[in-house]
Each structure stands twice: as C-alpha cells, then as structure tokens.
Amino acid sequence: MESASTVPVLTIDGPSGAGKGAVSARVAGHLGWNVLDSGAVYRSVALAALEADVDLTDEAALVELCSQVDLEFFAGPEGIEASLGGRPLGDALRAEAVGEASSRVAAVPVVRAALLSLQRRFRRPPGLVADGRDMGTVVFPDATVKVFLDASVEERARRRYRQLKENGEDVTFDRLLSDLEARDRRDRERAVSPTVAAADAVVVDSTDLSLVEVVERVVAIVGDRVAL
C-alpha cells in the first residue's frame, strides 16, 4: 500500500478571487487526481455542527465532530464541489449562518489542529490538488508542486463583479474592490496562516490569462516535476 507521504500533492494557494477553485477543479480533472477545498472544510464542519446542534463554544465537542465528519470533494464543471455524508452541499455552504459559524470554528486553535489532520487525510493516490491559502506553507509543506495563483486586485474585483451580476445581485464594482483590498490586508497580515507564497512556490499571475491558459500552465508545471 502506498504511503501517504509518497502521494504527489499540488498546492494552489492565493488571494480571494484569483480563481483557485476553478483552476484546481480543472487541473484535478485533467490529472485524474483527488481535490481538496480547504475553505469548504471549515464551512462543512460548521454546517455539521449547526445541524447536530453542537455548541460552538464546546471545543471538545467540536474536535470530536471533526474526527467524525464524512467529507468528500470532487471536481465539478464550475469548480470544486463538496458532499457531507454523501449529501451534496451545493449552496448550503454559502448560507450566512454557516459563514458566521465557520468564522467562529476557524478561530479555535484546537479545532484548527484537528482540521489540519482532516485535510491531510485527503492525500490519497493517485494524487491531490489542494486549494487554499496555506496549503503549501502549513498543510502540505512537503508538497511535490506548489503554485501561488495571483491576479491584480482590480482584475479579481472585475471577475467577482461579473459573477455576482450574472447571479442577479445588486453590487457595485467600487465596493467589491474596496472589500477585496481590505480582505487582502487581513489575509496577508494575520498571525496564523497568512496568505503568502511558499518560498518554493511557482507564482502564476492570471491577470491577463484565460482560465484555459492558466490550467495549461499549471498542468505543464506539474508535468515538469511529476511523471504523469
């Protein structure tokens, strides 16, 4: 049986709106590898806690829940999709109550440690594409290939604006740009798991690239380092 430490891992980190989910899903589909959305891990545990009526201040109960969560990810046509106990989660993870609970769950150090172990269990043959903000620095520091996917904050705001407008939401570009700039500062400056490129990561700037071009570039980077 293949040891987990020998299973190749591609980490794709980067700021919000860089396109990590869509790129990770397509790259995983191309390679035939497993996929992990680290942000959805926290939201999924928060959802499970809410559904099981677990007190979000009960650290022991939350840690126990982390060990029991039956969470799976797969590459969907629009990005990474998740299922909990075999149930597709879809829009459930984006509910406001889940987001608020996720923020509280992520702030508990022992829960973060438990979820670190949970995320590492997704390292299974034939390989793993891990999407997040600290995949290459904290979760999989020994990853075979590390990519830091970036784009200008203006381009990331434009992408988000188009996405939200297509969904019928009433948003303004200036507000989205301001929100992204503030989020970038928080993510870069936070004491725990800041959003930074690993020292050995390949930086891919997607500002002027299409999704297909980014996927091709990332697949080529993996091909240079892993026998596919």
UniProtKB/TrEMBL annotation:
Top-level EC class: transferase
UniProt cross-references to InterPro entries, sorted A to Z: Cytidylate_kin, Cytidylate_kinase_dom, P-loop_NTPase
Chief site of localization: cytoplasm
Organism domain of life: Bacteria
Family annotation (Gene3D superfamilies): P-loop containing nucleotide triphosphate hydrolases
Keywords: ATP-binding, Cytoplasm, Kinase, Nucleotide-binding, Transferase
GO biological process terms on file: nucleobase-containing small molecule interconversion; pyrimidine nucleotide metabolic process
Stretches assigned to the Cytidylate kinase domain: 11-222
SUPFAM superfamilies membership: P-loop containing nucleoside triphosphate hydrolases
Binding-site residues for ATP, renumbered to this chain: 14-22
Coiled-coil segments: none
Subcellular location: Cytoplasm
EC number, UniProt record: 2.7.4.25
Molecular-function GO term, any one: ATP binding
Catalytic activity line of the entry: CMP + ATP = CDP + ADP; dCMP + ATP = dCDP + ADP
GO CC aspect terms: cytosol
Homology family: Belongs to the cytidylate kinase family. Type 1 subfamily.
Protein name per Swiss-Prot or TrEMBL: Cytidylate kinase
Annotated organism of origin: Wenzhouxiangella limi
Organism lineage string: Bacteria, Pseudomonadati, Pseudomonadota, Gammaproteobacteria, Chromatiales
The gene coding this protein: cmk
